[in-house]
Design brief:
- It catalyses: L-leucine + 2-oxoglutarate = 4-methyl-2-oxopentanoate + L-glutamate; L-isoleucine + 2-oxoglutarate = (S)-3-methyl-2-oxopentanoate + L-glutamate; L-valine + 2-oxoglutarate = 3-methyl-2-oxobutanoate + L-glutamate.
- Keywords: Amino-acid biosynthesis, Aminotransferase, Branched-chain amino acid biosynthesis, Pyridoxal phosphate, Transferase.
- This is Branched-chain-amino-acid aminotransferase.
- It comes from Phanerochaete sordida.
- Helices cover 23% and strands 27% of the residues.
- With 430 residues, the chain is of the alpha+beta class.
- The chain folds into two domains: 222 residues, Aminotransferase class 4, branched-chain amino acid transferase, N-terminal domain (D-amino Acid Aminotransferase, Chain A, domain 1), CATH 3.30.470.10; 185 residues, D-amino Acid Aminotransferase, Chain A, domain 2 (Alpha-Beta Barrel), CATH 3.20.10.10.
- The longest helix has 15 residues.
- The radius of gyration is 23 Å and the shape is globular.
């Protein structure tokens, strides 16, 4: 039979009703979260006793239902990104009348939703993506989960879904990872991809904030994005379609931002390109590379190397990898934390508008160093060609497919993610 365990009852005694010892990491996690006030207090009117605030997500209410049919993890070499999922998932219900319900870790399986659920009709859906890694000593960490929770809350607010205690969700994800940690391949370059998702589930038609919602998390073991080494991609400069517009939803991680891009990517593939480069406005400002943030490196006549990425102007998704690349580059430029292998000379980092004209002019003058995208799945994706207005612009790449700035930053970032380089961005799970 499946085993149901309430963490609240577990912590009241040394053993659960099933006779199992309470894992020390569970007790320690609960103690830490109490000290840090992870849970929002539910307040009551002192006279009437009625609730004056609704419950936030509470780790202490977690129930664990372990599967009675565990599956053996597949051979790592057979993994296809996003096609294999672990034995368990996390689910947390919400209702406008009662607030956040008890979190539950349960066997991975289908969701039961009414056909009139608002997620199906009005796209009340958002998601995140992050990874957990196993280092050479077996230690498991997550990479910057606080950034994902902050962005998830901003996105929820944008589509009138309830916000939540991000620290509590991080603790719950840690527990999910601990249960399914054997799914993380013990092989260099492999990790566990974590997909938090939040949907409106109210069974009613009508455009309004939903009265019911569900936050759930699933996990998928994944291999290296480039198993045979870096392979630069060719982009098609898309001028016929727009990914986002000022004042729209481009800065939020919503499913509604992704489905419209699939047809555009298919059209780019028909033209011989791997992905599309989203351009905006009459001056063809560079925005994003497919579903990744865009970076360009220029070498100016005065010897200064400039790393440029479009600003967060409301159309650009604030990517966690984007922020990490900028932070590492700025620390190097300031001398705070030097990165081995970076080009000699002054490095300047700018978040500013950049157009295709500027990139083409720099290429003609021999000042275009490299062009690349950043994202959770690939980390860094180098670009060697951009199709634009009927002509191909060729981008310099090194023998290994990367450029002189992206290569050392990628090594530094992956070193942090995999535990080879100690850094506060790596959050211990187990």
């Amino acid at each position: 039979m499946s085993r149901l365990t309430s963490l609240r009852s577990l912590t009241s005694s040394a053993r659960s009703r099933s006779g199992l010892l309470v894992p020390s990491h569970v007790k320690n996690a609960l103690a830490r979260q109490t000290q840090a006030r992870f849970n929002s207090s539910v307040t009551r009117d002192p006279m009437t006793g009625e609730l004056t605030s609704l419950p936030d997500i509470e780790v202490s209410r977690l129930q664990v239902i372990q599967t009675d049919k565990p599956q053996p993890p597949p051979d790592p070499s057979s993994l296809v990104f996003g096609h294999t999922f672990t034995d368990h998932m996390l689910a947390i219900p919400w209702a406008a009348a009662s607030g956040w319900g008890a979190p539950q870790i349960k066997p991975y399986g289908p969701l039961v939703l009414d056909p009139s659920a608002t997620v199906f009709h009005y796209a009340q859906e958002l998601f995140e993506g992050l990874k957990a890694y196993r280092d050479a000593n077996g230690k498991i960490t997550m990479f910057r989960p606080d950034m994902n929770m902050k962005r998830m809350n901003r996105t929820a607010q944008r589509i009138a879904l309830p916000t939540f205690n991000g620290n509590a969700v991080i603790e719950l994800m840690k527990q999910l990872i601990r249960i399914d940690k054997h799914w993380i391949p013990d092989k260099e370059g492999y990790s566990l991809y974590i997909r938090p998702t939040f949907i409106g589930t109210q069974a009613a038609l009508g455009i309004a904030p939903p009265s019911e919602a569900l936050l759930f998390v699933i996990c998928s073991p994944v291999g290296p994005y480039y198993p045979q080494g870096f392979k630069p991609v060719a982009l098609y400069g898309t001028t016929e379609y727009s990914r986002a517009a000022p004042g729209g939803i481009g800065a939020y991680k919503l499913g509604a931002n992704y489905a419209p891009g699939v047809m555009v990517q298919k059209e780019a593939a028909k033209k011989g390109y791997v992905q599309n480069l989203w351009l905006h406005g009459p001056e063809h400002h560079i925005t994003e590379v497919g579903t990744m943030n865009a970076f360009v490196v220029f070498k100016h006549p005065d010897g200064v190397t400039e790393l440029v990425t479009p600003p967060l102007d409301g159309m650009i998704l604030p990517g966690v990898t984007r922020d990490s690349v900028l932070a590492l580059a700025r620390d190097h430029a300031s001398g705070k934390a030097l990165i081995d292998g970076m080009p000699e000379g002054k490095l300047v980092i700018n978040e500013r508008p950049v157009t295709m004209k500027e990139v083409i002019d720099a290429s003609k003058q021999g000042q275009l160093v490299e062009f690349f995208g950043t994202g959770t799945a690939a980390v860094i994706s180098p670009v060697d060609r951009i199709g634009y207005l009927g002509q191909d612009l060729h981008i310099p790449v090194g023998p290994d497919g990367m450029g002189p700035v992206s290569r050392p930053i990628w090594k530094q970032l992956v070193g942090i993610q995999t535990g080879k380089i100690a850094h506060p961005w790596s959050v211990l799970v187990d």
